[in-house]
Amino acid sequence: MAKLLIVVGLVLVAAGIAAQLGFPFGRLPGDFAFRRGNSTVYLPLTTSLLASVVLSVVFMFFRR
């Protein structure tokens, strides 16, 4: 459990640093936003795939 909390903390710190440096989370190519009238539907496809790959690599690294 302690390793998991450390990993989650490191991932959050890395995401915070990337956001401060201007990485466009949620505005990557492949993230879709549909606006019609007063409603907006947002599909963060590329951001979700990127987060999945990064978390898979991090957890694979700490599992060994």
Protein model, in words:
The chain is α+β, with helices and mostly antiparallel strands and 64 residues long. It has one domain. The protein has helices at 2-20, 45-63; strands at residues 31-36, 39-44. It has a two-stranded antiparallel sheet with strand order 1-2. β1 and β2 (39-44) form a beta hairpin.
Average pLDDT, rounded to a whole number, is: 84
The CA-CA distance between the termini, in Å, is: 15 Å
- From N to C, what is the helix and strand string? HEEH
Rg from C-alpha positions? 15 Å
Shape: elongated
The tally of domains stands at 1
Helix coverage percent of residues? 55-70%
Q: What portion of the residues fall into strands of 2 or more residues?
A: 15-25%
Put simply, the count of helices is 2
Q: Can you summarize the main beta sheet? A: 2 strands, antiparallel
Widest sheet: strand ordering: 1-2
Question: Which stretches are low in confidence, meaning pLDDT under 50 for 5 or more residues running?
Answer: none
- The tally of beta strands, per DSSP, is 2
Assembly annotation: single chain
- Give the helix/strand class: alpha+beta
